[in-house]
Specification:
The complex is a heterodimer of chains A (359) and B (341). Chain A contains 13 helices and 12 strands. With 359 residues, chain A is of the alpha/beta class. In chain A, the strands form 3 sheets. In chain A, strands 2-1-3-12-4-8-6-7 form an 8-stranded mixed β-sheet, with helices on both faces. Chain B is an all-alpha fold and 341 residues long. Chain B has one domain (99-340): MetI-like (MetI-like fold). Classes of the chains: A alpha/beta (359), B mainly alpha (341). The A-B interface holds A 74-75, 77-78, 81, 172, 174, 177, 179-181, 205-217, 221, 224-225, 228-232 and B 85-87, 89, 159-160, 163-164, 187-189, 191-194, 272-273, 276-280, 289, 299-300, 302-303, 305. Strand 7 (214-216) of chain A pairs antiparallel with strand 1 (277-278) of chain B, so a sheet runs across the interface.
Chain lengths: 359, 341
């Protein structure tokens, strides 16, 4: 028994030592964490959220002993299906419920609407492979043309114009896209459609529609493809790009070239507005992707937790609220290290209000 | 080591006897009274197993067909000639077809077969005729071991280890022989390595043990009397192989190759990892990427939200099922054809 508690203490210390800002908002809790409800929650969905959820789960278990969330990262589509089928308590999804999923979701919540809570934001990096080019600037229009075949050489005047003084090689561009159905692709295409509507006319959706390029499986596959193909450019979650050391481009959508950083992504999130009513915090993605805020990096993957606004049994309600408030508040400071963006304050308070409104 | 092992002398006769026997057994009437309970039980069991496999295959076929039809009815394209991007999320206007899948599947499998067949033949002849007896066992075991490597390992190895090493060869072929359609610039980048060129080589390694094992087993059964006769006529080792082993084992070799082809057609995970998805049409270049039937289904399997979307992929699966069926039938025909000769 003594040995066990020593191990636990040691592991707690290790987590604490990981980085100074790490043992999270726990030092300044906004209020006592309510640990009511059942001890085992289940959720399913987006792989993009997987690491964030793991972090939420860890912090939840630390703050509320014996609590545990089992998250099954099978993809956003599967998550929404499983939520509607009432097989899991909530869904993690990169895209909101589709129009014809709203009614079944309400039925699953005993006649109450399901809410979208944008809890996890992941910046998407535009990774490239150009030997000798340390810094590359692109914009939505150039990206849209690259990923639809309009621009196919690195020394294209449109790219040169964005990169004065950079020696761009005369090399064919190999656009790399995610060949599996993914929220990253969906958000990337939505970004192109919102920010470069003239150049991106191919539509959106979780499958790539560009008509050119090579598809790779999952984020790791995209990274592998970019790394192994000279002249490649691909979109991938920042966390994966950071881990592999692949360089990624800056985006200049009119208010100067912005490198992808947590602050830059947070600025873009801060300028986003909601499309949902009341506490359904479905985002108006156009406000995010077309942001003109200075220093904002607009290419951000927004992912939701989809929960019932009402209609869970009381034990589940309490547990869901407990978990989500830990996630939205206490666990936020650990997110950047995992490749996500910590929520801006204004946003966080809006989320907490919505979580508290779950009945 | 030059003279044949006397211990094998009888094997030829056994084989010869076995090939005559079936006509004799089959002519025995089944329902001939006087059967004990064990007899009836065994008869029932074996007959049941035979029927079961037929029912099972038929059930798979019917299942695939039943699930495919509703999706096919909503397909706005010609299922057999459409090769573009699949649009299956909007179930009222679906766009899917197998044109590219069929071509990529057959092309990759044939390329693998062409690479693997000569090597497998060489290994089988070596194991059956040339190798010292003491190392034949371990060598055969090693080849069989190739079949035990999980295909995910082959896929990762192919993409991360083999593809970078193949890059100089692939680039050279593309630059110097690019005028020939097989080496023309395809819809996946040559240097990236996610091409049928890489995939085919990995597939060849994967089907090698299957072809080798079957071929070796048949070659070993070459009647010793034939070999001795050839040797007695002064044949060299190569002439022995040419005049006795190859004619005797040809049907085994072909059926082994067909088994390998069946494996290559259905291989999923390795190809899913290696082959890049593509947006442009397939053009019969080794430097094309694309999807085979199996990888297309596997890539999307986690997103089968409704029966129509699933049905579209099941329809592709049905075609693969039929394709494998045809290949197996061809293998049967090839073996049967050689046997009667």
């Amino acid at each position: 028994m003594a040995a066990v508690s020593t191990t636990v203490a040691a592991s707690l210390m290790l987590t604490g030592c990981g980085s100074d800002n790490n043992l999270h908002g726990m030092s300044v809790p906004t209020g006592p964490v309510n640990c009511g409800g059942k001890s085992d929650l289940t959720a399913e969905g987006s792989t993009a959220q997987q690491n964030a959820i793991a972090l939420f789960n860890k912090d939840w278990a630390q703050l509320c002993p014996d609590k545990q969330l089992a998250y099954n990262p099978t993809g956003s589509g599967a998550g929404r299906e499983q939520f509607i089928a009432a097989h899991v308590d909530f869904a993690g999804s990169d895209s909101p419920l589709s129009h014809d999923q709203l009614d079944p979701a309400a039925k699953r919540c005993n006649g109450n609407p399901a809410w979208h809570l944008p809890m996890v934001f992941g910046p998407v990096a535009v990774a490239y492979h150009l030997d000798g080019v340390k810094q590359l600037v692109v914009n939505a229009d150039v990206l849209a043309q690259i990923f639809s075949g309009g621009i196919y050489n690195w020394n294209d005047p449109a790219i040169v114009a964005l990169n004065p003084g950079v020696a761009l090689p005369d090399r064919k561009i190999s656009p790399i896209y995610r060949s599996d159905s993914s929220g990253t692709t969906d958000n990337f295409q939505k970004y192109l459609a919102a920010a470069a509507p003239k150049s991106w006319t191919r539509g959106t959706g979780s499958e790539f529609q560009g008509g050119v390029g090579e598809g790779a499986q999952k984020s790791a596959g995209v990274i592998q493809a970019v790394q192994s193909t000279p002249g490649a450019i691909g979109y991938v979650e920042k966390g994966f790009a950071d881990q592999s050391g692949v360089p990624y481009a800056q985006i200049n959508d009119g208010s100067g070239a912005v490198a992808l950083s947590d602050d830059a992504a947070r600025k873009a999130i801060d300028s986003a507005t909601f499309a949902g009513v009341g506490n359904d915090l479905k985002l108006n993605l156009k406000s995010l992707y077309r942001t003109k805020a200075a220093g904002a990096y607009p290419l951000v993957l927004a992912t939701y937790e989809i929960v019932c606004s009402k209609g869970y049994d009381p034990a589940t309600t309490a547990a869901v609220k407990s978990l989500l408030s830990v996630a939205a508040d206490n666990a936020q400071s650990g997110l950047p290290a995992a490749g996500y963006v910590a929520l801006p304050d204004k946003f966080k308070h809006r989320l907490l209000a919505a979580i508290n409104a779950i009945r | 080591m030059t003279t044949p092992n006397p211990a094998d002398a009888g094997s030829g006769e056994v084989v010869a006897a076995a090939s005559v026997e079936p006509t004799a057994t089959r002519s025995l009437p089944w329902g001939n009274g006087k059967r004990g309970r064990g007899d009836r039980l065994f008869h029932g069991l074996s007959e049941g197993s035979g029927v079961l496999i037929v029912v099972l295959i038929a059930a798979i076929g019917v299942f695939l067909l039943v699930r495919a039809i509703p999706a096919l009815a909503r397909d706005k394209e010609n299922f057999f000639t459409y090769g573009g991007n699949w649009v299956t999320t909007n179930t009222s206007a679906m766009h899917f077809g197998i044109f590219d899948l069929l071509q990529v599947t057959v092309f990759a499998a044939l390329f693998a077969l062409i690479l693997a067949m000569p090597v497998a033949l060489g290994i089988a002849i070596f194991l059956a005729q040339y190798s010292p007896r003491r190392i034949t066992g371990p060598l055969a075991y090693l080849v069989d071991l190739l079949a035990a490597v999980p295909s995910i390992i082959y896929g990762v190895w192919g993409l991360y280890v083999l593809a970078p090493r193949l890059r100089p060869i692939a680039t050279w072929l593309n630059e110097h022989l690019g005028w020939f359609f097989l080496f023309a610039t395809g819809n996946a980048s040559v240097s990236g390595g996610g091409t049928i060129f890489t995939a085919g080589i990995v597939l060849a390694v994967m089907i090698l043990p299957i072809i080798t094992a079957v071929t070796r087993e048949v070659f070993i059964k070459t009647p010793q009397s034939h070999i001795e006769a050839a040797l007695a006529l002064g044949a060299t080792r190569w002439e022995v192989v040419k005049t006795t082993v190859l004619p005797f084992g040809r049907s085994g070799y072909i059926s082994g190759a067909m088994l390998g082809l069946g494996r290559a057609l259905g291989e999923t995970v390795a190809l899913l990892i290696i082959l890049r998805g593509t947006q442009a049409a397939f053009g019969w270049s080794l430097f094309d990427g694309g999807y085979t039937f199996a990888t297309k289904i596997a890539a999307t399997a986690s997103e089968f939200n409704n029966q129509y979307k699933a049905g579209a992929y099941i329809a592709a699966g049905l075609v693969l099922f039929l394709l494998t069926f045809v290949v197996n039938a061809m293998a049967r025909a090839a073996v049967a054809g050689k046997d009667t000769r």
